[in-house]
Write a structure and sequence with these properties.
Elements lengths: L1 E2 L5 E2 L12 H13 L4 H15 L8 H5 L19 H4 L2 H4 L1
Antiparallel strand pairs: 1-2
């Protein structure tokens, strides 16, 4: 037995998990993961260990998030554009013509 970073005990037994997913989703995920030096099994194990450690998933899962279209991603509502946003450009108009 080993103790993980979350203070839990890791048992060394191995079990198989069978999941169904779209073949294109799998291919795209494998492509991204290979660029990160990971395979799908390792990525799923990382995800499962994070669920255990944090006692949650690391992304928002809610009905509201499905209904809302992202405009600025996580910056939505955090970015304000000043009324004089284009004013500094006015100083350079003669150079841009």
């Amino acid at each position: 037995m080993m103790v993980n970073n979350c203070g839990g005990v890791l048992k060394m037994g191995v079990t198989n998990i069978n999941i169904r997913t779209d073949s294109e989703v799998k291919a795209q995920a494998q492509d991204v993961l290979s660029k990160l030096g990971l395979d799908l099994t390792t990525a799923v194990n990382l995800f499962l260990r994070q669920v255990i450690c944090k006692q949650s998933v690391s992304f928002d899962v809610s009905v509201a998030s499905l209904k809302k279209k992202a405009k600025l991603g996580g910056w939505e509502g955090k970015i304000e554009i000043a009324d004089d946003f284009n004013a500094p450009l006015d100083d350079f108009k003669e150079y841009m013509e």
